[in-house]
Design a protein that fits this description.
This protein has 129 residues and is an all-beta fold. 0% of the residues lie in helices and 47% in strands.
């Protein structure tokens, strides 16, 4: 599985961006998909995750109500819609894939980076104040 993230850029505070992550191969729907981010000098942190079906999602408290994760299994793509962006959202954003037996649920470990099997290359998001 290869993941290709895109959609990052420079935006003013209060603006919006939509990140995309396209997956190669035929097994996209077998994976829970997650977004993580890493700001300069900080550890990588969980942002959002979505179940294989797309019916279950979860978010870090810092982005709840502002970010929305979604997926299109027909297009092998996961999205992260980011609204009301803040300077503290500035980071490199990574998509990740984790094989899962559950179609509908996010099982234990979905917020933990090392529990994911595949990673994209990252896309830079910069929010100016």
């Amino acid at each position: 599985v290869q993941l290709q993230a895109s959609g990052g850029g420079l935006v003013q505070a209060g603006g919006s961006l939509r990140l995309s992550c396209a997956s190669s191969g035929r097994t996209f729907s077998s994976h829970v998909m997650g977004w993580f981010r890493q700001a300069p000098g900080k550890e990588r942190e969980f942002v959002a995750a979505i179940s294989r079906s797309g019916g279950s999602t979860d978010y870090a408290d810092s982005v709840k109500g502002r970010f929305t994760i979604s997926r299109d299994n027909a297009k092998n793509t996961v999205y992260l819609q980011m609204n009301s962006l803040k300077p503290e959202d500035t980071a490199v954003y990574y998509c990740a894939a984790r094989q899962s037996m559950s179609w509908t649920h996010l099982t234990t470990g979905f917020t933990t980076g090392h529990r994911y099997d595949y990673w994209g290359q990252g896309t830079q998001v910069t929010v100016s104040s």
